[in-house]
Amino acid sequence: MGLGNPASEYAGTRHNLGAECVAVLARRLGVSISRRRWKSLVGYADVTPEQRIWLVQPQTYMNLSGQAVATAVRDLELKPEGVWAVYDEIDLPFCRIRIRRGGSAAGHNGVASIMSSLRSHEFVRFRIGVGHPDGDGVRYVLGRFGRRESESLEQIRNGVADALELALASGVQAAMDRYNRAGSLGCEEIP
Predict the structure, then answer these.
(1) By 3-state DSSP, what share of the chain in percent is helix, strand and coil, each rounded to 5?
(2) Which residues are annotated as catalytic?
(3) In the predicted model, what is the mean pLDDT of residues 83-111?
(4) What pLDDT digit, counting tens, does each position of 151-174 carry?
(5) Of 24, 69, 93, 163, which has the fewest beta carbons less than 10 angstroms from its beta carbon?
(6) Strand, coil or helix: what is 150?
(7) CA pair distance 9, 63, nearest whole angstrom
(8) Contacts 24+ apart (CB under 8 A), 162-169
């Protein structure tokens, strides 16, 4: 689940970084995320004969992401543990990723919506640091990246897609071991 806001006015904002990273993964897998289903844009890939992954970009707004996620989970008969949410995180420095199973919403309304809709916190999170705002958090996440940050965005998107591919190939723990450390995305971290 690549979280973000659907309207074009939000393209390129911090809040849409998760959806952008999933789009990079989709391109690598040759998947078009264009089919409308589950209040989302979706596509899928058969990674192995036994493994199909669905790439989902909810088209509800961020704060209602749980509606789309819960509908997909129900239709696909998944357990919450089978959901991977990819999203922006203001409590991590820009250019850091933190992968974990379970946990709290940490003030992220999209994650809170998923937790509420799934009635569980036991899903995998790929939290992408966008830095901490000096002031209004809402204005910050709905804003665009500055020039200095923009220089690293392609590297971040590709690094997160690398982490997702590693998790698909070798398991979430392998991705956690590789990426849950400073510098793992290869760009300068900005608090």
Answers:
(1) 45, 20, 35
(2) 15
(3) 92
(4) 999 999 999 999 999 999 999 999
(5) 93
(6) helix
(7) 16
(8) 163/97, 163/99, 163/126, 164/21, 164/22, 164/25, 164/84, 164/86, 164/126, 165/25, 165/28, 167/84, 167/99, 167/124, 168/47, 168/51, 168/53
